[in-house]
Specification:
The complex is a heterodimer of chains A (119) and B (690).
Chain A (H helix, E strand, L loop, with lengths): L3 E8 L2 E10 L4 H13 L4 E12 L1 H16 L3 E5 L3 H10 L1 H4 L1 E3 L2 H13 L1
Parallel strand pairs in A: 2-3, 3-4, 4-5
Antiparallel strand pairs in A: 1-2
Helix pairs in contact in A: 1-2
Chain B lengths: L2 H9 L1 H18 L6 H28 L4 H24 L4 H7 L1 H31 L8 H16 L11 H17 L11 H24 L5 H9 L1 H54 L3 H16 L3 E8 L2 E8 L3 H13 L9 E12 L2 E17 L2 E10 L7 H47 L10 E8 L7 E7 L4 E9 L3 H21 L3 H12 L9 E9 L4 E7 L4 E5 L2 E5 L12 H6 L2 E5 L5 E5 L1 H4 L10 H12 L4 H16 L8 E8 L10
Antiparallel strand pairs in B: 1-2, 1-5, 3-4, 4-5, 6-15, 7-8, 8-9, 9-10, 10-13, 11-12, 11-14, 14-15
Classes of the chains: A alpha/beta (119), B alpha+beta (690).
């Protein structure tokens, strides 16, 4: 199977998860582990950077659905950024843009978190 | 001897023997003593055949005891004793009998016959016993030296007829006798069977062979005595007397060789016994490998046999269960004790190396509840159970009281552990494959059920030409399509895709089927219906799972297709050789259970023209991949629809299947592939999307 890679970095109070490669039923657990770590450390503001993601399957989409509630309950969120068109298309068809915030680039997403903090 | 005669003798041993014996008796009554050479030779021939046949007959009994050489020797000993008793008895009566017997010929003949037949039978039995011992554990089929020895025995028999006096000794007979003895010596060294006896048997053999050597020797020596019995025997048949003498010396030599061989084998007997026990333990284990597939039973046998092989007091076996070591079987030690000892050894890091280790004088302190127990093992062996360099567990063997393990015992524990590892691995694999087989058959049942959930036929009516297709990626899948005849005029069509694959998705798919079956009868509007479906699914779907669906209703009287899309793939609408994607708003079922879902969901109405085609499909179609991870994509689907929308739906369906399979080129299917096509075939007025 194709590769998948996930890593997390902190930008201020926001955590950015970089996902790379193919996110499907086999690789989804790696991403879940990353989210569990963030929750354990009380990091609820998450931006997922899709810059290098090539493919996402329904199992991959399910990961965000599973964690978004927890993040929002703790005044955080999962925001998406840097998505390529074909990947965005999958999210779009499913109606994700109605439920999640999508940004052209990572900094805009982080900025959105910072703005809401000021409110 | 010609062949039929030989066959007759072999098949009717007893009858032929009795016949010849009777002939001898008759002959001896007619010619109690004779000086005629012809009669003498004829008499000797008869006696020879009687001896030959009784030997062949006796061989029938000795052959039965070939697995028990000691019993053969004991029987020979008893016969020897009888013969010795007869000879000894006759010597004491030496003075009395001759006078009696020479005067009364009849009584003499009868006694002579009785005595001679006793000798004949003894010689026959003893000789065939010795022969049986000779061929015992022999690998070769041909026995040249043995055959020549027997030939010399026969020659000696007949050579005895030649008169033997002081002045003119029987040199021929003497020469043959000496050669016979030489051949006896040569042939007596065939005693390899002694090696296979247990130590106890070897000890008793030592005793028996001494006794036999003495008896044989005495009988041999007494055969030179001028005793009454000897004279009687010589009178009866000089050949028999000589053969008796030869067999006695044969017995003496053979018994002596047995004695020395047994004596020399005695020091190694114990080691030999142990090796035999090991071999038989390994043998029973290898038999178990092929017959016992029950893991627990096998583990118990292994620990039991380990004690036997290594003479250890206790043994136990641990196997890997996940990342933990789990005690699988104990022999001659408490379960809790073995478990605690293993833990202590594990803490000491002994198990980390996964190597064969032995210890002398190993102390282990364990705490069981509040009780601290000290174990002082004289020897401890820890052997990993490795299969293909992969450690599956450990076999422990300990001695509490005896001396430490010997080098060969250490080796045999290790060899045994290797064997056991393979056996246990086999049992495990078989258990797993049985389990797999069971799951496979369950999945097959699930698949059959799923194919029953999917409609086996598409509805047929004059206004619509419908075709549909469903191939799950695995045995079962999460795709679903269905048709509902709502009224005479209205046909409901649904296509849905449950996120994820396999059994989990299939369960939800079945649930969706149930929901649609009941709701389509009650709710007319596709939008309202999907909103209700979302509400119902909120009770069962987990957070990660969602379902995309399109539900629509074709009104045949108006030529209208009214539908709503809940996050599903775009609808393809084909008209006049062109295609168009229709993506009305709507989010997937299960993504949101609040107003957002309801508010977003849009219902559209499509006015159908003659030959308009509507294509509904799941992402398995557009995401079908070839080996380079390229996707079939919208582009290829669109092309196919454009090219073939003019033909029947069935043709179009086959074309799509064809294109997909040509594209993926044997690459395995990742996702369920489902699509529904329908073509409006009735004339209608308006056109376009409302």
């Amino acid at each position: 199977m194709a590769d998948f890679n996930v890593s997390t970095r902190g930008v201020g109070s926001v955590k950015v998860i970089d996902v790379k490669g193919y996110l499907d039923a086999h690789t989804a657990p790696d991403l879940e582990r990353e989210f569990n770590k963030l929750i354990d450390e009380n990091d609820f503001k998450v931006v997922v950077n899709f810059d290098e993601l090539k493919y996402i399957s329904s199992a991959g989409l399910g990961v965000f659905m599973a964690y978004v509630e927890t993040m929002r309950e703790n005044s955080g969120d999962i925001k998406f950024s840097n998505m390529q068109d074909d990947v965005y298309n999958i999210f779009d068809l499913l109606g994700f843009p109605v439920l999640y915030e999508f940004f052209k680039d990572e900094s805009a997403a982080i900025q959105k978190f910072d703005e809401s903090k000021l409110d | 001897m010609n062949l039929p005669f030989a066959k007759l003798i072999v098949s009717k041993k007893l009858e032929s023997t009795i016949l010849v014996v009777l002939l001898v008796i008759v002959f001896k009554f007619i010619f109690p003593t004779t000086e005629s050479w012809a009669a003498k030779i004829f008499g000797e021939l008869l006696v020879f055949f009687a001896l030959l046949l009784s030997t062949i007959y006796a061989a029938k009994f000795t052959a039965l005891r070939k697995d028990n050489p000691i019993s053969l020797l004991i029987n020979s000993g008893i016969l020897n004793a009888v013969v010795f008793f007869l000879i000894a008895l006759s010597s004491t009566l030496f003075d009395v009998l001759p006078k009696l017997s020479s005067s009364i010929t009849l009584i003499y003949t009868i006694i002579s016959l009785l005595v001679s037949f006793t000798f004949m039978l003894s010689v026959g039995y003893i000789f065939s016993s010795l022969r049986e011992l000779y061929i015992l554990k022999q690998k070769k089929e041909t026995h040249k030296s043995y055959d020549s020895m027997v030939t010399f025995f026969i020659l000696s028999f007949f050579a005895a007829l030649i008169p033997d006096t002081e002045s003119n000794p029987n040199f021929v007979g003497l020469t043959l006798f000496v050669v016979s003895i030489l051949l006896i010596v040569v042939n007596s060294f065939r005693v390899s069977w002694i090696a296979f006896l247990s130590k106890k048997q070897k000890l008793s053999l030592l005793f028996i062979s001494t006794l036999l050597a003495v008896l044989f020797g005495l009988n041999f020596a007494l055969s030179f005595d001028e005793s009454f019995i000897n004279q009687m025997l010589v009178n009866f048949s000089p050949g028999l007397h000589i053969v008796f003498r030869i067999v006695m010396i044969y017995g003496t030599i053979y018994s002596s060789i047995i004695f020395f061989t047994a004596l020399f084998h005695l020091p190694t007997a114990e080691a030999f016994d142990k090796k035999v026990a090991e071999a038989s333990s390994l043998k029973s284990l290898s038999k178990l490998i092929t017959t016992v597939f029950d893991f627990k039973e096998l583990a118990d046998t292994i620990t039991g046999l380990t004690n036997e092989v290594s003479n250890s007091d206790s043994s136990w076996l641990v196997t890997k269960s996940g990342d933990e070591w789990e005690l699988s079987s104990v022999s001659n030690i408490g379960f809790v004790e073995a478990d605690e000892i293993t833990k202590v050894l594990h803490q000491e890091g002994i198990l980390k190396k996964e190597e064969y280790i032995t210890y002398n004088k190993k102390k282990v302190k364990v705490q069981i509840k509040n009780d601290i127990r000290k174990f002082e093992f004289q020897a401890l062996a820890v052997s990993p159970l490795k299969v293909h360099n992969n450690n599956k567990g450990f076999l422990f063997a300990v001695r509490r009281y005896n001396l430490p393990f010997e080098e060969d015992e250490k080796k045999s524990i290790q060899a045994f552990a290797d064997y056991a590892a393979v056996a246990l691995e086999n049992a495990k694999l078989i258990e797993e494959s049985i389990e797999k087989e069971r799951l496979k058959s369950e999945l097959n049942v699930a698949r059959d059920i799923q194919y029953k959930i999917i409609p086996s036929q598409t509805p047929s009516c004059k206004e619509l030409d419908i075709a549909a297709h469903f191939i799950p990626a695995f045995e079962v899948g999460g795709d679903y399509y269905d048709f509902f005849q709502l009224t005479e005029e209205k046909l409901g069509i649904v296509i849905a895709d449950v996120s994820g694959k396999g059994i989990g998705a299939a369960f939800i798919m079945a649930e969706i089927k149930g929901i649609f079956e009941s709701l389509t009868r009650m709710i007319e509007s596709p939008r309202d219906l999907l909103i209700k479906v979302n509400q119902i699914l909120s009770r069962t779907l987990d957070k990660k799972t969602f379902v995309t669906a399109i539900y629509g209703v074709v009104d045949k009287s108006k030529g209208v297709f009214k539908f709503a899309r809940a996050g599903h793939m775009p609808v393809y609408f084909c008209r006049n050789g062109g295609t168009k994607q229709l993506i009305p708003n709507g989010i997937g079922l299960g993504l949101n259970f609040q107003e957002t879902f309801d508010d977003t969901l849009e219902e559209v109405e499509l006015q159908l023209n003659e030959n308009d085609v509507v294509a509904l499909y799941t992402d398995g179609v557009t995401e079908a991949k070839n080996i380079h991870y390229d996707e079939f994509d919208f582009k290829r689907l669109e092309e196919t629809l454009k090219d073939c929308a003019q033909y029947s739906s069935e043709y179009l369906k086959n074309k799509i299947i064809n294109k997909i399979s040509t594209f993926v080129q044997g690459n395995s299917q990742y996702d369920d592939i489902t699509f529904v096509l329908f073509k409006w075939t009735s004339n209608n007025k308006s056109s376009g999307v409302n």
